[in-house]
Amino acid sequence: MSTFYDQKIIWITGASSGIGLGLVKVLSKQSCTLIISGRQEVELQKIKQEYEKGGAEIYVLAFDLEHISTFDKLTQSLIDKYKRIDILFNNGGISQRAIASDTPLSVDRKLMEVNYFANIALSKCVLPYMQQQQSGIIAVTSSITGKFGYYYRSGYAASKHALHGYYESLYLENKDWGLQVTMICPGSIQTAIAQNALNNEGKSNGKEEQRLQEGMDAEHCAKQIIKAVAQKKKEVFIGGSELLPVYLKRWFPNLFWKLMYRLKH
Fold first, then answer.
1. Nearest CA to 7 among 42, 33, 28?
2. 151 flagged as catalytic
3. Among residues 82, 156, 167, 247, which one is catalytic?
4. DSSP state of 115
5. Hey, what domains does the chain have and what are their CATH numbers?
């Protein structure tokens, strides 16, 4: 792993917390350049100060994923500075905790805007440069909910399902250009995703979930992600027993539906 990331220019979105921060912690020990992005510049600067001593150069580029119109200029600024982008960890996003019938379309649109449209928009900005350099990696943080629907996550699940269809197509179209795509499907990871999830009013849920608190540490998750990308895996599932429905749906669909229904009761 150490030689794979040496001298790479690596852009990480959602870098101020959760899995994104875990990626920063692990990759900061490599001889690479990390561009860390999120909405809160002050927090990103603190992360830079804390982890830049590990060996990596860290550059802060704060922006909001909802402001898609800024992406072209942001990407161009990085190309002007570094001449290339080797890896994009497209990690930023937001979850949901609301029943579908109580959720207005505006909330579904926001989930799609942040999790899907912003995600692919940033990749569209980076892609021409990766084509030009005949190499590049886009690592996309999806979810196991991108492989099956689940209670209170209808809009979130839809946005994650959409990512899989898009990036599978993108990979096939650009394989000859040297593009690698890795879809990352975490299960229960210790992050603030539940507290920050949108409720049916489009506001933060504000509640922790025991399932996530007992899940995998975000830094350990990041190590598995970094290993999977270095191994050029197209899809990786990270977690514990919560990954079981992924395989049940594939091989035993009738059992899958019975189990998922019982989980609510």
1. 33
2. no
3. 156
4. I
5. 9-263 (3.40.50.720)
